[in-house]
Amino acid sequence: MNIIACYKVVPEEQDIVVLQDRSLSFARAEWKIGQYDLNAVEAGVRIAEDLGGRISALSVGAQPLENSKLKKGVLSRGPEELYLVVDSKLENADTHLTAQTLAAAIRKIGACDLILCGEGSGDLYAQQVGAQLGELLNLSCINGISKITLQDNTIIAERTLENEVEVLEIPLPAVISVTTDINLPRIPSMKNILAAGKKPVTQWDLSALELQQAENKTQVLSTLAPEQVERKQLILEGESEEVIQKLFENIRKELL
Amino acid sequence: MSQVKKVWVLAEKTDALAQLCAGGRQLGEEVAALVWGSREEAEKAAAYGADKVYWLGSPDQGRMLEDYTTTIGELLKKEIPDLLLVQPSRRGKHMAGRLAAGLGTSVIVDAAEITIVQGDIQIKHMVYGGAAFREERAFGPTTITTVGPGVFSVPAEERGSHGEIVEVEFREPAVSVKCLEKKSKAGAEVNLNAAKRVLGVGRGFAEQADLKMAEELAGLIGAEVGCSRPIAEGVNWMARERYIGVSGAMLKPEIYFAVGISGQVQHMVGANQAKTIIAINKDKAAPIFQQADYGIVGDLYKILPVLSSLIKANR
Ligand SMILES: Cc1cc2nc3c(=O)[nH]c(=O)nc-3n(C[C@H](O)[C@H](O)[C@H](O)COP(=O)(O)OP(=O)(O)OC[C@H]3O[C@@H](n4cnc5c(N)ncnc54)[C@H](O)[C@@H]3O)c2cc1C
């Protein structure tokens, strides 16, 4: 069983600063592995541990991917090797360019039975890459998977939708996006982190994948923080009956 | 407002279909709906205002709606609508992605606003957990977007139009996933998006049993109960359908009453469209107070019972 888990490196959301002109600054943002993708990596590692097989991790993006702490970060969670596609052209890749690059990388890596993605990226959360990747690779493909059981050459999976849970039979090879409740990602030990530094990393750029012509299919016109709604801000302090009575007077005509 | 020529809509549920048809009317000269089910369902869609209904028929047992991606993809390539509006459900997003990949384009998800500027389709949607709105446009003959709930409202009366119904022949996909069983989820039937009043509970509650106090107050003021994400996904005290925010429900109520909620941006983007926001929190520095109309700094365990009895006494 060959498994590939895909992940995205994203800016730490706490470090994003809204500037005076309502634009966002990432200047001080640390980079990290998208939190939803940790579930995909964990799901892949567990299958490989339980059934035997080989799990690799794969990410495409710009220079922050080369950060050695991030490389160790993903490898310390269990994958045996890492593939990266690093290219400045991928800095603000849209879902199409990302899926296209992942598809090309997976074809180059070779035989693969199962590809796992997180539910959405930690930054834009478009929930698109898994679906687009599956279609581009012409594989069976599904999202929202909250439970996986392997049976011979198929996967029996539960898919959580808004009002129902579907039990699915997914033929392999397949591309599957998993939800955050599928597992609890492990916390790597010091030993895991040290061992991660010795695992193989293969790095390509877009021309190595013959994708130098690839382009985004969307154009960003602006990204601005929303204007603040004016609020009355009548805030009281205290827990005495008097203060609560006052709060009640303030909101009575709205509530009753 | 200027319009494009052809807008297509794709939805699993009829209420979403009606909304998207109404949106399609605003944005396009001609609206076509992709519809599954009986002929009656197709006729209903025509009554929602679709000029044309592409009737896909009823799926066989075990067949997933996703299997229609090939059929719809071929139809898109042939008819080349300018815009495809898709219901933002998990299934809708998945199908949108596969259709886009088939057409060699991208998808813009959870549109909060769609405008047509000199024939160009511009779509606004939230990014970075609610920190910003991004305006974006897609290249390619057909723009595909999923539309956030409540962006379009259904007109009070149905148009009763006589849209043409076109039967579409099913094309077997090369690969497919089989549905063995469907289980319904308990407690899933809430519609927070439509609620006029919502009372949100957060980590300020120490025990699940204490939520009763909030439920009592909600009952007194006729509010639906919602929550912050950790209540639904951390401690699992409430169904996931009840959590509010960027990855949960997006509200537009008259009143949002936040109890024991800190007011982080990922939560507040789901609540800050409320006309009035009321907050109870014991931390004076909690960000929720910056965004509230009325508030009280204090222990919810002391405040809730007194407030409930005041409301009872004054009703
Ligand atoms: C990518 C991403 C997506 C997210 N999406 C969502 C989302 O969709 N929805 C969402 O809600 N969150 C979301 N979050 C999480 C969000 O950032 C916050 O962590 C979460 O909303 C906090 O929930 P809370 O306010 O209940 O808890 P806390 O932040 O722990 O706040 C609890 C509050 O209760 C107050 N309190 C404690 N005891 C009492 C008392 N006795 N009386 C009165 N007040 C008391 C405290 O002062 C505190 O302010 C997301 C986070 C990330 C990173």
From TrEMBL, chain A:
GO terms for molecular function: electron transfer activity. Residues 23-213 form the Electron transfer flavoprotein alpha/beta-subunit N-terminal domain. CDD domains: ETF_beta. Gene3D superfamilies: HUPs. Signal peptide: none annotated. Coiled coil: none annotated. NCBIfam families: PRK03359.1, PRK12342.1. Belongs to the ETF beta-subunit/FixA family. This is Electron transfer flavoprotein small subunit.
Automatic annotation (TrEMBL), chain B:
One of its GO terms (molecular function) is electron transfer activity. The keyword Transport applies. Keywords: FAD, Flavoprotein, Transport. Its cofactor is FAD. Transmembrane segments: none annotated. FAD binds at residues 203, 228-229, 260-267, 281. SUPFAM superfamilies: Adenine nucleotide alpha hydrolases-like, DHS-like NAD/FAD-binding domain. Binds 1 FAD per dimer. Residues 7-183 form the Electron transfer flavoprotein alpha/beta-subunit N-terminal domain. SMART domains: ETF (SM00893). GO terms for biological process: fatty acid beta-oxidation using acyl-CoA dehydrogenase. Belongs to the ETF alpha-subunit/FixB family. This is Electron transfer flavoprotein alpha subunit. It comes from Desulfitobacterium hafniense (strain DSM 10664 / DCB-2). The lineage of its organism: Bacteria, Bacillati, Bacillota, Clostridia, Eubacteriales.
